[in-house]
């Protein structure tokens, strides 16, 4: 267990020089959504810092299969599903970390193995980079896209859903990390 000197509210905040998240008062709706999305992505990464494969794969709240490593795999899958398959329309591409036999493969196959950890983080980072590249060219938040199970949604709705998805899972990550080594806050 690595201990850190307490910063703000007994260690609840990261030292400013160690915190890549920003609050830059973005101008415009898309810039605001992107800042929130980026900061939540960074928060999940920070929750996973300095942990071994065993710690990352720890399922701290039995009988749940939730683990920090599972969350990284899950968010790679979510990024891929929404940005690549839905927003870009590449539905023929198989889902990441999913199978017809195991719809929770992202969590169930998150095992304490360095190769699994490397694969998960590489996939997640690749999906984030691809999503950010797509977002760089986005001009219409109101554009409608077809949803995987039918119906339509605006690009805006999907992006706000992505912020919500990260916010929810960063809350899970807070509790999981505290169970692993007692670290709270960022």
From TrEMBL:
InterPro entries for this protein: DinB/YfiT-like, MST-like
Pfam families: MST
Record's protein name: Putative damage-inducible protein DinB
Annotated source species: Micromonospora pisi
Lineage: Bacteria, Bacillati, Actinomycetota, Actinomycetes, Micromonosporales
